[in-house]
Structures are given as structure tokens and as C-alpha cells.
Design brief:
Helix content is 32%, strand content 30%. It is of the alpha+beta class and 176 residues long. It has a single domain (3-175), classed as Gcn5-related N-acetyltransferase (GNAT) (Aminopeptidase, 3-Layer(aba) Sandwich), CATH 3.40.630. The relative contact order is 0.15.
Length: 176
């Protein structure tokens, strides 16, 4: 396996479209986006433009937002997942989202992609100068909380997230 974090690019359109299709219109955790019903060029172009704007630290982040780097987890040029790395936390992220979010294509789960994608995101977090990062996951997502704990995540608490459509959310901190 050659797993990397790759910035969204039109060069991987077909692989991105196939990955998005696997999520079937569901919210893609960690991607900063909701999956379109079809992976089209206009949607990808808009995602790339959004990713460039929101990651540009030379200008203030838009109101209510934080600077955010969007990546694809790729393996030998195939998009197998998504990572969102937020440079700081706002109130909503502090409660529900954390610094890092990730998702792996359903057909590529349980193959180490989340673990490796998270490890690469932690390296990028260190490069940003962060001392620690928060990650969250649904309380019933054993795969995700095992991945976070395996990366050194220390459980802070489990909070009620009914207002977000989830029964509860685990909040973790990883020291860098």
C-alpha cells in the first residue's frame, strides 16, 4: 500500500466520483461536505475551489468558519477516504467536530486506511504547530473510537448530541 493524503484534484475525478457514490448521498464524516447524488465535474470543481479558500491562512476565515485543510486518503492513486483538518476550534467544533474528521469508503474499511489517514493527519497537525488535537465520533462507532484510541486518544467525555441527530458523541484529545 502507498497511502497518502492528497489535496482534491481533477486528476482523480473517476476515483473521487466512485468514492462519493459509495456514500449514497449521506454526509461524509470528515470531508466537510455532503456527498452529491452524482459525482460530477462541477461538484468537484466547487470542492477544489472551496478547499483552496478555506485553507488559505493569509486571509481571515469566513464568518463562523475556521481554516480547514481537506484531503483525500489515497492508495496508489485511488481515493479511499477523506480527511478534514481544522486549524483551530470554534464553539461547534469544540462540541461536535474536533480538529480532525475522517471517513473511509465502505468497501475499503477495516483495511487500515483510517488508522494511516489519521496518523498522516496528526503529522500535518504537528506541522501546523498544534500541541494537541480534538477528535470526535459517534458513541456507537466502535471502529472509529478504536482508531482514535489506537492513535493515543484520551477520552474527555461522552456528550448528548440529540440536537445534531446523534444519540451521543465521544470527545477525545490526542497530545502531539
Amino acid at each position: 500500500m502507498t497511502i497518502e493524503l492528497t489535496r482534491p484534484t481533477t486528476a482523480l475525478f473517476d476515483s473521487w466520483a466512485a468514492a462519493v457514490a459509495e456514500f449514497g448521498g449521506e454526509h461524509i464524516d470528515g470531508s466537510g461536505m455532503t456527498a452529491p447524488t452524482s459525482g460530477d465535474h462541477e461538484t468537484l470543481d466547487a470542492l477544489i475551489a472551496k478547499a483552496e479558500v478555506i485553507s488559505d491562512t493569509s486571509v481571515p476565515a469566513p464568518d463562523g468558519r475556521v481554516h480547514n485543510d481537506l484531503y483525500w486518503i489515497t492508495d496508489a492513486g485511488e481515493v479511499v477516504g477523506f480527511v478534514s483538518l481544522r486549524h483551530e476550534l470554534n464553539d461547534w467544533l469544540r462540541r461536535f467536530g474536533g480538529h480532525i474528521g475522517y471517513a473511509v469508503r465502505p468497501t475499503r474499511r477495516r483495511q487500515g486506511y483510517a488508522r494511516t489517514g489519521l496518523a498522516l493527519a496528526l503529522e500535518r497537525s504537528r506541522e501546523l504547530g498544534l500541541d494537541q488535537v480534538m477528535l470526535t465520533c459517534d458513541d456507537d462507532n466502535a471502529g472509529s473510537f478504536r482508531t482514535i484510541e489506537g492513535a493515543g486518544g484520551e477520552l474527555e467525555d461522552v456528550i448528548d448530541a440529540a440536537e445534531q441527530g446523534h444519540p451521543s458523541v465521544r470527545r477525545y484529545w490526542i497530545a502531539l
